[in-house]
Design a protein that fits this description.
Number of strands: 15
Number of domains: 2
Helix content: 25-40%
Oligomer: single chain
Radius of gyration: 19 Å
Distance between the termini: 24 Å
């Protein structure tokens, strides 16, 4: 993956302090918590985050899950939850790094960021590669279709049954994986770079539908586009923060503080601002969501 740099428009301010923009790669080498001569970090990731005072998070700029504000700060349901949990852990700031979904896990495992906080939904294949926190958000999936839903699309089964249908997805996203798991041929899949491009693909007739979480599509809704009800032949899913497999102590500490946050009105206020339900996040476990096929 090409080296990415954190721009001032990609930074998340937390606790009222702005994080300094630094290159993603080569970050650890000049810090006091690295081994002399090797540039390798000493101690655990949790120790490092507390020492440096911030964590780097991978985001996707897909409201309401993640969002870049006009002033360059980063917010959204998952970054806001992650910021609140980390603050409880003694890590007062986070820096957001925008990256495609398919690059999030490879970048995490290559130490380009510390945490994935992008609404990267749990499923079997992802849970085998990284550690997730307990659920932070739970979501449903829908199609964006031309007004009136002329192809009468209500689920993945209808897509698979008609080889002429074209469905737009974000490569590496949960929806891309759901189509593959269902056996929808690649010839029916239209890869698009971002949410707005998915809507434009439907408007231009390059795709019959754009497959994305319901709330994300609601945020993108425009004239001439209709959002279907939640798709019933996709399992309920959700996400937590994503961590490297080796960061077990960080995950344990994070889960402890996430549990405490979930017991407060603050958790419901954070999620409610973005249209999510705190009770829905409390109703499922990591084990249940990691059992989702794909």
């Amino acid at each position: 993956m090409r080296r990415t740099e954190i721009s001032r428009r990609q930074m998340l301010r937390a606790g009222g302090a702005a994080a300094l923009a630094v290159p993603v790669t080569g970050f650890l080498g000049g810090c006091t918590f690295t081994q002399p001569g090797s540039g390798q970090p000493t101690g655990s990731t949790l120790d490092r985050l507390k020492q440096q005072g911030y964590a780097r998070i991978a985001i996707a700029n897909e409201p309401p899950y993640t969002q870049i504000n006009p002033d360059g700060s980063v917010t959204g349901a998952e970054p806001d939850v992650v910021a609140a949990v980390l603050k409880r852990m003694g890590v007062p700031r986070i820096e957001g790094i925008v990256t495609p979904y398919e690059s999030m896990i490879p970048g995490l495992n290559a130490s380009r960021w510390d945490i994935i906080a992008a609404g990267l939904f749990m499923k079997q294949s992802r849970c085998s590669q990284i550690r997730y926190s307990e659920p932070e958000i739970v979501s449903t999936e829908s199609f964006a279709v031309p007004a009136g839903n002329p192809k009468k699309l209500t689920g993945i089964a209808a897509v698979k049954a008609d080889p002429a249908l074209k469905i737009a997805v974000l490569p590496g996203g949960f929806e891309d994986g759901a189509l593959k798991t269902a056996g929808v041929p690649a010839s029916q899949v239209v890869n698009i770079p971002d949410g707005r491009s998915g809507i434009e693909a439907v408007q231009a007739g390059r795709a019959d539908a754009f497959f994305l979480p319901t709330l994300s599509l609601n945020a993108l809704k425009t004239e001439g586009i209709e959002i279907t009800g939640p798709i019933t032949d996709v399992q309920q899913t959700g996400s937590g923060a994503g961590f490297r497999q080796a960061d077990g102590d960080l995950v344990a500490a994070y889960d402890e503080q996430l549990k405490a946050l979930k017991a407060t009105p603050e958790f419901d206020q954070i999620l409610g601002k973005w249209g999510f339900s705190g009770d829905a996040a409390r109703s499922v476990t990591r084990e249940q969501l990691c059992a989702v096929p794909g």
